[in-house]
């Protein structure tokens, strides 16, 4: 899921690392750390009020006995932040509504340029792959060629679309779209609506009228993940005037800070159901809030990695990777293998974000295409014994490896350090209890 | 003057809330105290100015301002500091003469409002009596060419377009050749929306602009990056990456008619040095205005500032 939140993750991990270095904590230490947490959230575009309330909740719990009285106060703080973050993002995965009697009507709303039409196309393709027959309905009669865009999208995935005539009243087009869907025996009708500003009273009233006519089973708000502070006002307005059941975040494949995700969930209470991670129509993923919280706090999203690997690699390979990840029997050979697999799976920028330890720039650098060849050369210049047990690689071995691979000792050191980071992290992930999991040098 | 009012109306819609509370304090002529500093921090952060810049700015003002100073001092100092961050206004390059058209390339991420901006810009040039050529360089998005054609019809501009999926550089080349042959004064080049992190797409953009420079030395004369005012801190990354890939000469800030306040432009101008040239304030053809730093800041602060004519 791209590198969403990586900046926030880096900053939070740094806060916790410093906190952990302290041993005993005073209220002042906790307050200073929470101030940093607040700034990190704001820097990640989380809305001002949402960040303030979030930190206040943590403070309430942290200054109580829950933390200062404990033997491992820093870990307690991390645990509280993790729990609150997971709660803020919305617990476990939420699914789309299904009507008792088809068609299930989904209505997609949002600002201009949020990506509504593309989301309609992506949802349609996803439903089609699940064996459903979705029909698309273009109710955007305002933007030039909007209906044409949806029709072209539908045709490209072998589906039908009904488009209301430009300039007509979208409310009047609703019955025709429903009739068309029934005629085609569609079991889903995806209604794409015109982009509008949440401060435009007339257009919000129009949207409400469309909803009353269509009586959708689910209204999805499409939000550009790069949205800043305004996300709260947009979400509040759509939730208040139209009523929402879920949120789809788009344009997550960029270097978005992702604050909008936290803000929107916090003010609407609506779950984020899907995220768009690319321009291609299959680039839509279900959103897993609990995993995202772990990602932000630097624990890596091993489950997503394994799922992704499972889709791409053969099954036993994935099982092997999972076993190694869990047991941290993770040699330099495996490290290289994992880096190569990551590249083969494609979408390196997306995948790098879910590799455990992505917060570390060094590690990320090893995955980069131009560095991978060098990484491989270094590992290939080691003896089998060195690859199994890198601890024996002393200064003179390092020099030999550097010469053998045509690199320098610094490059060898960097690689060993990245490998060490990945390994340490995996060992933590392998631990069963939360206490051990948040141990280690990461916090 | 009309322009200023229009921008005010857009930004003003956003003022309810904290600015409203702040202006209550102003009305009560309360000296500057902690509560005012806090409200100010909140409302500036909520304008997407970026928390680091806001803390710097307020820290600086706090050191400079005497304790319990009169509020008017604070507002004046803040306004002048914000204005200086925006620098001097840099006007849009004017269209050329027949046979020597000025080429405007319009770039940006998906959904920022490129095509609409082009439609408005075409309308502006046409209403100045100029011949305008549009180049449908977004050959990727379904319906993009149709959307631009409709804008061409509405504004009376000519358009050059190829098949969907065609090479955008070829479209740009043909449009410039045609504009040269037919004596147009302006060529506006649409490009496909692309996220600034997509290296291959940024490379493609660079290639298109190289072809443009081959078709007409010196072109594009203006490369406009379209930014959505609702975008948060990511706007700075967009400006940085597009700036590095294709030497952006100006920013168009769109969707200022919502409740977003577009505070990201302060960092874009002061850190990256890219001037803001135009603002989009509505869906109408005439809703594209020249950016004026002083007006922008005043619109941002107006609810809190003492009203004009009022004695200090």
What is the radius of gyration of chain A computed over CA atoms, rounded to a whole number of angstroms? 25 Å
Task: Supply the helix-strand structural class of chain A.
Answer: alpha/beta
Mean pLDDT of chain B: 88
For this structure, the CATH topology of the largest domain in chain B is Rossmann fold
So what's the overall shape of chain B?
elongated
- The string of secondary-structure elements of chain B, in order, is HHHHHEHEHEHEHEHEHEEH
Query: Which CATH class of the largest domain in chain B?
Result: Alpha Beta
From the structure above, extract its key features.
heterodimer; A: 443 residues; alpha/beta; Four Helix Bundle (Hemerythrin (Met), subunit A); Rossmann fold; 3 domains; eight-stranded mixed beta sheet; 8 strands; globular; B: 312 residues; 2 domains; 12 helices; elongated; disordered N terminus; disordered C terminus
Question: How would you characterize this protein structure?
Answer:
The complex is a heterodimer of chains A (443) and B (312). Chain A has 443 residues and is α/β, with parallel strands linked by helices. Chain A has three domains: 6-89, Up-down Bundle (Four Helix Bundle (Hemerythrin (Met), subunit A)), CATH 1.20.120.140; 104-292, 3-Layer(aba) Sandwich (Rossmann fold), CATH 3.40.50; 298-437, Orthogonal Bundle (434 Repressor (Amino-terminal Domain)), CATH 1.10.260. Helix content of chain A is 57%, strand content 9%. Chain A contains 22 helices and eight strands. In chain A, strands 3-2-4-1-5-6-7-8 form an eight-stranded mixed sheet, with helices on both faces. In chain A, helix 15 (332-344) runs antiparallel to helix 18 (369-380). The two termini of chain B are 24 Å apart. Chain B folds into two domains: 2-89 and 298-304; 102-292, Rossmann fold (3-Layer(aba) Sandwich). By secondary structure, chain B is α/β, with parallel strands linked by helices. The interface between A and B is large, with 45 and 46 residues.
